Amino acid sequence: MIRLLRMMTEQDNQEFALELARLQQEHRDLDAAIEALQHSPAPDQLRLQRLKKRKLQLRDRISFIEDQITPDIIA
Question: Phi, psi at residue 67, to the nearest 5°?
């Protein structure tokens, strides 16, 4: 039973790590897209706002996953 639980935890952590890497890459890509759009001659403000909103959503999900991966430490 404990072995099965440990295997599930390891598998969960691996899945979280893969999702985390994907989300971090998307976050970096959005950062670059936002930067490029801001420096364009006539930036599309609506598109810029949507990209920033998506970036914030990613940041929230990244923080959640990092919390799941990092074990709670009771001081």
Answer: -65, -35
Which region, left, alpha or beta, applies to residue 41 given φ > 0 means left and ψ of -120 to 50 means alpha?
alpha
Q: How far is CA 33 from CA 5, 20, 38, 43, 50, in A?
A: 42, 20, 9, 11, 11
Residue count (the chain):
75
Cα end-to-end span (Å), the chain: 29
Over its length of 75 residues, how does the chain's per-residue pLDDT go in tens digits? 555 555 557 888 899 999 999 999 999 999 999 999 999 999 999 999 999 999 999 999 999 999 888 876 765
Which 3 state secondary structure label does DSSP give 70?
Answer: coil
| Nearest alpha-carbon partner for 68 in 1, 31, 18 | 18
Report yes or no: 30 and 55 within 8 Å, Cβ to Cβ: yes
